[in-house]
Structures are given as structure tokens and as C-alpha cells.
Write a structure and sequence with these properties.
3-stranded antiparallel sheet; 38% helix; UDP-N-acetylmuramoyl-L-alanine:D-glutamate ligase; 8 helices; 9 strands; 6-stranded mixed sheet; 22% strand; alpha/beta
């Protein structure tokens, strides 16, 4: 077991995304997962039916007791929902993990369309969390909302990613899954320059719940294990594609991935 990853994110009662998916990914890739739960959700493959915020003070306490005892080689940020939680998480990072790499997945909308980030929290995320990101992993709608500019076409992708680095993120992985076409193109920008472009065939399936959480946690695990960012992204993308291709087919809506495909069957 190598690589300590502290996951700061929301719970998904359906097990396909959020904390549940994050723990599975880190474990499947040989890392050690720890958590600070920010919000509880009642959700399944058909949507989000309830959201219950964890008090910001308790989110901070979860982070503090883990970071001052076990420590972390990387921190993965997921659903934060409210501005006071964003502020509390930023404060804990500055106080106890200022030199620790941070992977920020700006979770805004669930696969079924439910909003997972209040408008006030988005502003706090943009101003306070994005500048702390070692790498930011938005999809196109999330990137457009944060940068305040359009980027739906491949030609617009570089400027959209650069708009996010202007906000302070050291690197941006702009995911291209929301574009039409037979291939998915993800762009990695580091320090304002494109360092890699990853292209793979689109997998036509409804079983894609939690792909963003899964990818970000896989990247965080790679960073925690000493991979370069480019290596961590490449391995994470391969992990996600295999997880989609071998999805178990559970649920009536957007089903979960097979996070355990690296684990031997018993």
C-alpha cells in the first residue's frame, strides 16, 4: 500500500460517486484512503433526492485529526456545496497541508442534473480553492462557469483552460466528454501551456455515474504515489475507461462504474 490520499467530498448513498467511489478508486490503485465528509446526499442512479450539509466546523475537525496524525501525500477535493465549507477546507489546507498537492474536482451538477454547488459556494471555490489547486479537473460546463467564457469546441479548449490557470490553478485537466463526436479529447495545461492531449474512443453507455470523481481520485492516487502529473493522468484515464467498459449495469438510470476491476475476483 503506497500513497496516502485525504478525500474531502460528499457522500453518495448509491455508491457510484462521491466519497464511496473515491475510497474504492484509491484502494483499487493501491493507495490508502482517508476522508472528511462535507455533505450527505440521498441519491441513486436516477438522481439526487436530498442533501444534508455537514457543519463546516466538523469538516475542519475531520481534516485536522487526520492530517496531524496520519498525514497525506495528496488531497482530493470534491463536493463542497456551501461557502463556509469551502472556507473551512481552505483554512485547514493552509494550516496543516500547505505543501501537499491538491487535486480539485469542481463538482457542480450531478449526472441527473441536480445542483451540487450553491452560487455563493461557486464564487468561494473560484476565489479561494482554485488558487490552491495543483491540478483542477473540470468538465466543459464547470470550466465555463468558473472562467466565465465559452469552450464547447476543440478550438476554444486551450483558451478556456488558460482562463482557469489565470484564476490560479497550477495545472488544468479540461475534460472533453461533453463535446459531441466519436472521440473524447482531454487537454492538460501546466503553467499556462498545453503539456499533453489525451484522446480515446467514446464509450456509448449510460453507465457513467461518478466518472469525474473516479478520474480525480485516480489522479490524486498517482500523485500520492510519486507519479508525474502526466503519468498520473494517463493511468487515471485508462483506469476510468476500463471501469466504464466493465460497468456492472446496476440501477435504472446512470449506473455506476466497476471501480474494482483491478482487484482479483474471489
Amino acid at each position: 500500500m503506497k500513497g496516502r490520499v485525504l478525500i474531502v467530498a460528499g457522500s453518495d448513498s448509491g455508491g457510484g460517486a462521491g466519497i464511496q467511489a473515491d475510497i474504492k478508486v484509491v484502494t483499487a490503485l493501491g493507495g490508502f484512503a482517508m476522508t472528511a465528509v462535507t455533505v450527505l446526499t440521498a441519491q441513486n442512479t436516477e438522481g439526487v433526492f436530498g442533501i444534508h450539509d455537514v457543519p463546516a466546523e466538523f469538516v475542519a475537525q475531520q481534516m485536522e485529526v487526520v492530517l496531524t496524525d496520519i498525514g497525506a501525500d495528496c488531497i482530493k477535493i470534491g463536493m463542497l456545496h456551501q461557502p463556509d465549507i469551502v472556507e473551512a477546507v481552505c483554512h485547514m489546507i493552509d494550516r496543516f497541508a500547505s505543501e501537499t498537492p491538491v487535486v480539485v474536482d469542481p463538482v457542480m451538477v450531478a449526472k441527473g442534473g441536480a445542483s451540487l454547488l450553491t452560487e455563493e459556494a461557486m464564487e468561494a471555490l473560484k476565489i479561494k480553492m482554485v488558487p490552491r489547486a495543483t491540478v483542477l479537473t473540470p468538465n466543459i460546463p464547470e470550466a465555463e462557469a468558473l472562467a466565465g467564457q465559452k469552450g464547447a469546441t476543440i478550438d476554444q479548449a486551450e483558451e478556456l483552460a488558460r482562463g482557469l490557470t489565470v484564476l490560479g490553478a497550477r495545472a488544468v485537466l479540461l475534460k472533453g466528454g461533453h463535446r459531441d463526436g466519436g472521440n473524447v479529447m482531454d487537454m492538460l495545461m501546466e503553467h499556462g501551456k498545453v503539456s499533453d492531449i489525451y484522446t480515446s474512443p467514446r464509450i456509448n453507455t449510460v453507465h457513467t455515474h461518478g466518472t469525474g470523481c473516479t478520474l480525480a481520485s485516480a489522479i490524486a492516487t498517482g500523485i500520492a504515489q510519486g507519479l508525474t502529473l502526466r503519468e498520473a493522468v494517463a493511468r487515471a484515464r485508462n483506469f476510468v475507461m476500463e471501469a466504464i467498459e466493465t460497468a456492472p449495469g446496476f440501477g435504472k438510470g446512470h449506473g455506476p462504474l466497476n471501480h474494482a476491476h483491478t482487484v482479483n475476483e474471489y
